[in-house]
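BUG: 3D viewer hangs when loading the predicted structure for this chain

Environment: internal workstation, default settings.
Expected: structure renders.
Actual: progress bar stalls at 90%.

Input used:
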Amino acid sequence: MADLKIDRSRTALLLMDFQEGIVAGQPEPARSAILDRARMALEAARGAGLLVVYVSVRLRPGYPDVSPRNKRSSAAKAAGRLEEGTAAVQIVSRLAPREGEPLVIKRRVGAFYGSDLEVVLRSHDIATLVLAGLSTSGVVLTTVRTAADMDYDLVVLSDCCGDPSPEVHRVLMDSVFPSQAAVVRAEDFINALG
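Structure tokens produced before the viewer hung:
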């Protein structure tokens, strides 16, 4: 995508839910490929001086914030997954945050709901979000919808996202996201950074 323009001072890369317990749910070889491309995008963003923000879902010990009416969170509770303080919530080492890179904790699917993400972004005068994450039908979809309603400009790195269903991933990237975001590959983003 030759016309992608990135204002380095007002753009943030969001790496969402790249946690041990979520990454493990991605099939190989897709998992390694996604992590490799996300790592390239991360290094390019750091090199260009972009704000890098990590978003992580972490449920409190004992799961007091899980409602039985919430199917996704209830499934995590039933499986004993994503509890704060466990290895499952740690960011994978290939994408580990550096000192000074914010880590936003959320208790639900979307990156904004119940988190301080907006405070972090507004504090840095961010206008454009570049999104990468797992899963496409979860955190990426929810964050695209919310961020678009909040008037952020959006870029989705299609090959730095993954979903348990390749068909759902394809439909979202090809038919849903383009109405609210520029959908590009990591290579396009890296090239736009110069």
